[in-house]
Amino acid sequence: MNATLSRRPLRRFWGWGVACEHLTQEESARIGMMVQMLGGQITDRTEPQVSDFTLPAPRIAPPAALAAMFSDTPLDRLNHALGKSYADLARMWLRQVPHVPDWVAYPDDEQAVIDILDWASRHNVAVIPYGGGSSVCGGVEAAVGSSYAAAVSLDMERLNRVLEVDPTSRAARIQAGALGPELEAQLKPHGYTLRHYPQSFEFSTLGGWIVTRAGGHYATLMTHIDDLVESTRMVTPSGVCASRRLPASGAGPSQDRMVLGSEGTLGVVTEAWMRLQERPRYRANASVRFTDYKQGVQCVRALAQSGLYPSNCRLLDPMETVFSGVGDGSAAVMVLGFESADHPMNEWMRRALEVVRDHGGSYDAESVERSMRDDGGEEHRSGTAGAWRQAFLRMPYWRDPAVGNGLIMDTFETATTWDRFEAFYKGVRKDVAQAVQQATGHPAFVSCRFTHIYPDGPAPYFTIAALGSAQGDVASALAAWREIKQAANEAVIKHGGTITHHHAVGRDHRPGYEQETPPLYRQMLQAAKATVDPQGILNPGVLIDPRDRQVGITGALGRT
Ligand SMILES: Cc1cc2nc3c(=O)[nH]c(=O)nc-3n(C[C@H](O)[C@H](O)[C@H](O)COP(=O)(O)OP(=O)(O)OC[C@H]3O[C@@H](n4cnc5c(N)ncnc54)[C@H](O)[C@@H]3O)c2cc1C
């Protein structure tokens, strides 16, 4: 049952992390408290096992020459059936996985990717590129409709090497299937880092980051992976499309920009040249408290427009401080940080703290001073910033049992301009809280933090925690989630935000994407897709439909 062609440590197919890792006693107690606080009860539900699932036989045989790279074991197929959204976890707990790929292919190299796409194009087989499978919007689910002969999940894990480092230009050629820790471990001996740390860092890949336009470490300037990409190489059913290594170019619409955000619909990214950073030696950190959230927001706006460009500037609203364990809900907290490999950041921090004081923020001056003296040390991992970081890293592990106990724990993220933010924040929270109350009969806890900030607006990230069902019934909670997710999609668009700042469109955000973009633009994308993928085999139903096929909204939100 546990046979797999994967060469990586065995993943927990129904949740987050590797299969052998478990929560600490303290963490389990914390989940229990949370479930009870929301009015639920801890149930001793059995975790999903591979043997709980009956999978249909694969509908097509792989080509003989490539067969050694194809797996149809239940574990491999289940591991690639869904991403890691709330709805994905809930469906795993329910043992309801309606779109299992017929096969999982593990190409050894780029030529194998070319051969697989060629075979799939000729046999009407849908291909779903797969990086770490951490999609939270239905990006890797094989919900491709009934017009395909079969569906193959194309797992890029064997293309996971750093191939070249150019220290002069400070860039590296990295294969797309490298997970965050894999690429960082290979860059470290060269003294470099990519410094792209999404919360899913451990289990997401360079290729996934590029095609979903992932948001990472930096709160300002290099916020998206886009800013770190120097050039890309993508295999399409019509041939290989590679861009030149250039620091910048004004030659027509950017080729790399077609790849960024393409979500596996135009081709399979096999490698990219990425801009690197030196490891930071100088840091300055502060945890700031605002008794008035509005003043905190104004302070962040002033910082975003100051030209100081902090690397970290996350404003947690009072409810978010409770979720993160860094406050009691009586105040907002801003985690502020500067870093550099080249020069001390003390003057930047001192100026930022003047801005903070002007907006009524308070902080522990001694701890800020310590962080500035602690060149290269661990001060930034202690205190409020450290507690927040620890909760940030462990949160995905806590979600698994919470979902199994009937809680709805979900997040959605967006961006909007400063002039609209106040009304946006109020409107979105109100609409979502109402939707939760209506769908579940229970109150919602809706919190917000800024993940990234820009001179013209923030990227707010909302977390919803609610009791989906008092009896811990996951099916009722999932049904309620469908209504809540639709309401959240509508709320961010209605109040003036984007459907996604960095989680991508996938399947679950398509309704919002279709409201956000003009039909003519989506037709341009379809035309581009028809050129590189004339049979429409690549990730059908994600982002857009192939030109001549109606896949529509499928997956967790749509028809099954
Ligand atoms: C707990 C948690 C925390 C998260 N935190 C963040 C965060 O901080 N920032 C953020 O931006 N996102 C975050 N995400 C979302 C997710 O991790 C990102 O979207 C990530 O970029 C996906 O990478 P992946 O390698 O896991 O891709 P997958 O989930 O495997 O795939 C995502 C999409 O990319 C396509 N794809 C994957 N690899 C390739 C390739 N080589 N070529 C072409 N298409 C490909 C897939 O077909 C799919 O459409 C989080 C998710 C979870 C579950």
Automatic annotation (TrEMBL):
Gene3D superfamilies: 3.30.300.330, 3.30.465.10, 3.30.70.3450, Uridine Diphospho-n-acetylenolpyruvylglucosamine Reductase, domain 2 (3.30.43.10). Keywords: FAD, Flavoprotein. The active site is at Y461. It comes from the Bacteria. Residues 96-279 form the FAD-binding PCMH-type domain. The keyword Flavoprotein applies. Substrate binds at R399. The keyword Metal-binding does not apply. GO terms for biological process: lipid biosynthetic process. One of its GO terms (molecular function) is FAD binding. Signal peptide: none annotated. FAD binds at P129, Y130, G131, G132, G133, S134, S135, E263, G264, T265, L266, G267, V268, V269. Its cofactor is FAD. The record marks R314 as: Important for enzyme activity. It holds the Pfam family FAD_binding_4. Belongs to the FAD-binding oxidoreductase/transferase type 4 family. This is FAD-binding oxidoreductase. It comes from Comamonas denitrificans.
